[in-house]
Amino acid sequence: MDIAFLGTGRMGTELALHLLKQHRVTVWNRTPQRTARLAEAGATVAATAAEAVQGRPVVVTALFGPEDVRVSFTGADADSSFNAAQPRVAYNPSAREYLVVWSAVAATNPRRTEIMGQRVSALSGERVGSVIAISVAQPGLGDYTSEMPDVVYNGVDQRYFVVWHRFETNKPFQVFGRFINAVSSAPLGSDNLTLVNWGAHNGNNIFDEDRIRVAYSPAAGRYYLVWASTPTSTTAAVSRVQGISIAADGQTVYPLTDFTGPLGLGQPTAADSSPAVVYN
After folding, report:
1. What are the respective helix, strand and coil percentages of the chain, to the nearest 5?
2. What's the predicted TM-score (pTM) here?
3. How far, in Å, CA of 96 to CA of 27, rounded?
4. In 3D, which of 147, 138, 143, 139 has the Cα closest to residue 165?
5. How far apart are CA 144 and CA 203, in angstroms?
6. Among 16, 12, 32, which Cα is nearest to 24's?
7. What is the pLDDT of residues 33-58, one digit of tens each?
8. What whole-number distance in Å separates Cα of residue 93 and Cα of residue 154?
9. How far apart are CA 175 and CA 224, in angstroms?
10. What are the tens digits of pLDDT across the range 68-98?
């Protein structure tokens, strides 16, 4: 079998030597000198990680250190004012790559947290292109937080759909989304898509949409969003799981479903949270 092996430090070298006993191994390491022992044992040495994995059905990595796997770059290193958190990932089998999305502090005065993304090769583990600014900045709002992102790949239209909620001081959450072209990495449209607006949506009062999750149905041509929310503004209200479906163009939002109430999937007096959704 042809195997690509990335990372030939102390542990990686021993593992690759073991594989060489029964397989053809092509190795790559950031420091080429560390591949010498494996070259003497019969391994092929590649100049780049991309060259090493090209045409090889199995890829093994033994990488160490933050720069080997680092995806996010926001603000200066060691500056705790610029945090990156809450990563989510979707896989594109056509391009054999991932889109990783996360929430990151983009500005500190006023403080704004935005949604970022990065394509990553599934073959080499290397970043593809530069960081994508997914959420459109709203500087006129003052302080706000865009967070809890999720992402799904739509192979029919070759695009990703990224969703998140945004919180402004003393205001309930709103749910936004944006499409990303899977080929060019370009965000589609000039602004965020408003998917759920606090206060009223399809005749239902909704407050504090949290922990958004999304799935795509190629058969129906729809996206399905679920979240935990507090449906009224009263202090006695408890959270429940709700959801909507959205047409593939992102423009048509179908009526809200309350999974806790009408479908009886939860107790009306219990606090439901942390939902998930998947297409079968």
Report:
1. 10, 45, 45
2. 0.71
3. 20
4. 147
5. 26
6. 16
7. 999 999 999 999 999 887 888 888 88
8. 10
9. 13
10. 566 776 666 656 666 788 899 999 999 989 9
